[in-house]
């Protein structure tokens, strides 16, 4: 019989797998992008349908993006920025290498 472990044990084993850290970071970035769009939309009092129409996409695609379920292309991000009358800014930040 195998010993069962909790979430922390499972997460630790999965994060030790090759590529897991990169996949986790990509998922985090997708979630953060979606959350930023949702915040901007809600601050304007817009529905998902209104933003989706203005950006030339479907409401369901926007909902998936806002939930962090998809990684948008730069073209999609530019269309969303245009719908908000905002500027899309993409930049690279220096990181401190791990010792």
Automatic annotation (TrEMBL):
Biased composition (Basic and acidic residues): 1-16
InterPro entries per UniProt: Cro/C1-type_HTH, Lambda_DNA-bd_dom_sf, TransReg_Diox_bact_type
Keyword tags: DNA-binding
SMART domains named among the record's database cross-references: HTH_XRE (SM00530)
Organism: Kribbella aluminosa
Transmembrane segments: none
Protein name: Ribosome-binding protein aMBF1 (Putative translation factor)
Residue numbers spanned by region Disordered: 1-21
Top-level division of the source organism's lineage: Bacteria
Keyword GTP-binding set for record: no
HTH cro/C1-type domain boundaries: 37-92
Keyword tRNA processing: no
A Pfam family matched in the record: HTH_31
């Amino acid at each position: 019989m195998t010993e069962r472990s909790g979430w922390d044990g499972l997460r630790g084993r999965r994060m030790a797998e090759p590529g897991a850290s990169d996949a986790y970071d990509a998922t985090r970035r997708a979630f953060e992008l979606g959350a930023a769009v949702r915040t901007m939309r809600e601050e304007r009092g817009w529905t998902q349908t209104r933003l989706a129409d203005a950006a030339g996409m479907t409401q369901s695609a926007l909902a998936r993006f806002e939930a962090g379920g998809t990684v948008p292309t730069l073209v999609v991000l530019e269309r969303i920025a245009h719908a908000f009358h905002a500027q899309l800014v993409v930049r690279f930040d220096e990181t401190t290498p791990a010792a």
